[in-house]
Design brief:
Distance between the termini: 76 Å
Largest sheet: 2 strands, parallel
Number of strands: 2
Order of helices and strands: HEE
Low-confidence stretches: none
Shape: rod-shaped
Oligomer: single chain
Helix content: under 10%
Length: about 325
């Protein structure tokens, strides 16, 4: 339990006097576990390595606070202001952070496993190598966050805004992505094998060399996305918006692209063998050098700007030229 003398000193003197006292003496452990600090004004407070396990910090203002290495396991931080706070290496496992403001916070190597971050704002936070195992980021805002090296197993980002986020190289197979906004996100080399993506926005995202084998991207907004060298065999892209997408050298063998909008898409060198493109729109698409053995072009629309592999007869293949 919390050391009541420390708690009284913190609340009575405020952050400035507290910081002077802390920096002027050696304190082995600042024990504030289970303390009631709800709504406290703790701007720029120095709680380096403090034990705040189970503490109530709901609605507290911890803007710019130093909580590096602190124990905040199972703490209540709902609605807390943690902008620009230092939480690197902090233990926030099973902590409650719904609606918390973490804009620009340093969460490098922090443990947020099983934490509740619903509706929280983590925009521009430093999140490299953070542990988000089983965390809930439903409806959260995490614009521009860098999650490279993070543990994202069983993470829930339903309806979260991850615009411009960096998840390169991540294994996203167990991540709940329903309704997530990943536009302009960096997703190079991610593993989404056999994942069903529902209402996910991936427009202008970078998916170079991603593994999407057998994944379902039906009716998604993939406009201007970069799929160069991606593995997409047997993927379902029916009715997807792939207008101006870059699919150069992508492997789309046996993929379903029926009804997809591929206007002005770059399919140079792509493998489309046995793919289903029925009723797709290839107006202005570039397919020179593509491999299209036994691909189904029935009812496909194209125009004079569409380029084809040498020797390919679009009319004979069932393409409707406009």
């Amino acid at each position: 339990m919390a050391d009541l003398r420390l708690l009284e000193r913190l609340l009575a003197g405020g952050p400035e006097q507290w910081n002077e006292w802390v920096q002027g003496r050696a304190v082995e452990t600042i024990d504030l576990s289970g303390a009631n600090l709800a709504g406290a004004m703790l701007v720029a407070v120095d709680l380096l390595g403090a034990d705040l396990g189970g503490a109530d910090l709901s609605q507290a203002d911890l803007t710019g606070a130093n909580l590096s290495g602190a124990n905040l396991r199972e703490a209540n931080l709902s609605g807390a202001k943690l902008r620009q706070s230092i939480l690197d290496g902090a233990d926030l496992a099973s902590a409650d952070l719904p609606g918390a403001e973490l804009v620009g916070a340093d969460l490098h190597s922090a443990d947020l496993s099983l934490a509740d971050l619903t509706g929280a704002d983590l925009s521009s936070a430093q999140t490299r190598e953070v542990n988000l195992l089983g965390a809930d980021l439903t409806d959260a805002t995490a614009v521009g966050v860098d999650l490279t090296g993070a543990n994202l197993s069983d993470l829930d980002v339903e309806n979260a805004d991850l615009t411009g986020a960096n998840l390169s190289g991540s294994d996203l197979r167990s991540v709940h992505l329903v309704g997530a906004n990943l536009s302009q996100a960096y997703l190079t080399g991610v593993n989404l094998t056999e994942v069903v993506l529902t209402r996910v926005v991936l427009s202008k995202s970078d998916l170079q060399s991603a593994n999407l084998v057998g994944s379902v991207l039906r009716d998604l907004n993939l406009a201007s996305a970069d799929f160069r060298h991606a593995e997409m065999a047997e993927a379902d892209l029916s009715d997807a918006n792939l207008c101006e997408a870059n699919l150069m050298d992508a492997d789309l063998r046996r993929a379903t692209l029926a009804g997809a909008d591929l206007c002005r898409a770059n399919l140079r060198g792509a493998t489309l063998s046995f793919a289903n493109l029925r009723e797709a729109d290839l107006s202005g698409a570039k397919l020179s050098g593509a491999y299209m053995r036994q691909a189904d072009f029935g009812g496909v629309s194209a125009d004079k700007h569409t380029t084809w592999p040498e020797g390919f007869d679009p009319v004979a293949a069932g393409v409707k030229l406009r």
